[in-house]
Amino acid sequence: MRATRTCLAAAVGGLLLVTACGSSGDDDKGGPGGRGFTPPKMSAPAALGRTEGQVNLIAWAGYAEDGSNDPKADWVTPFEKRTGCQVNTKIAGTSDEMVNLMKTGQYDAVSASGDASLRLIASGDAAPVNTDLVPHYKDVFPGLKMQPWNSVKNVAYGIPHGRGANLLMYRTDKVSPAPDSWKAVFDDAPAHQGKVTAYDSPIYLADAALYLMKTKPGLGIKDPYALDQKQFDAAVGLLKRQNRSIGEYWSDYLKEISAFKSGDSVIGTSWQVIVNTAQAEKAPVKAVLPKEGATGWSDTWMVSAKAKHPNCAYKWLDWIVSPKANAQVAEYFGEAPANAKACQETADKQHCATYHADDAAYWKRVHFWTTPLPQCLDGRTDVTCVPYAKWVQAWTEIKG
User: How many whole angstroms separate alpha carbon 47 and alpha carbon 133?
Assistant: First the structure.
């Protein structure tokens, strides 16, 4: 499951191109067609050759299971038997670690989140992907294809893996009435002094920006990942006020479950898998996608520009998004699968309903992580937006 995905949007030092996500647009300044920068020139293969006998992957824990952690969780061994490609997996705990590992040139593919994918594209470490060489790509939900975090200038740079939303979870015996707005953890946070929790990452600034986008229209926020200085300062100010009510920031989902079970936390951001697990352990919790919408994450398998085993890498991309394998990983990890046909393969026949896999209206309310750039992702050209490196600095100040 998601236990070791400790800090999805880790600090990236002084790098200009770093994490985030945004809503879908369609122009060359911020939508699926472009990101305001031009990647290094390179082309995707026109055809595949013979497989090389192995593939070296960088993955989140739970994405490339071979049965060693759980005998029932093994979609790597069938892949190896079918393709002859031996899988060597390096588990990464943060997006920043993934980016650094990809730069070594020792790996063939990576399961990048939206807060790493654009960095890999801009630096030339990830290559364009020929989706025609990935037969199961045709069955991927349309809402995951050619999005701001996995394409640039109408060129695909990866194959979607899965997605999830950042929800508002609360203790039903401590929080009344049931919340339907992020106001509960921002403006109304003092009502739960010391019992509020939030995701421990600079990308959480986007959650504040989204709330302000819906409640303070005068700020003119159109995209929670495209903030000019005034908008950014407003989001930082909101989080500094919230900090007075925070009991703890979380990055390990097991610790969040424990905090909600004990009552140390009664309200805050969460994931569906956390809600499910907490409820299974008899914690009196529920979760909601608030009326303002939510931020979220969508992971993409990307091929290294320096891949030594590109043919096996492409075989893996097609395998991991095939219906059965995609269903297995989605259930084990706790996410919505990318392949629509995976919903017919899940052991829990309610899995896709629980995770809203095929609910297009639900995902339209989710603003997926994408990299904040100086070039505003909302299309503005008359201002400079605050890049992610500044988000990192601000997060340190917010937490104190």
Answer: 7
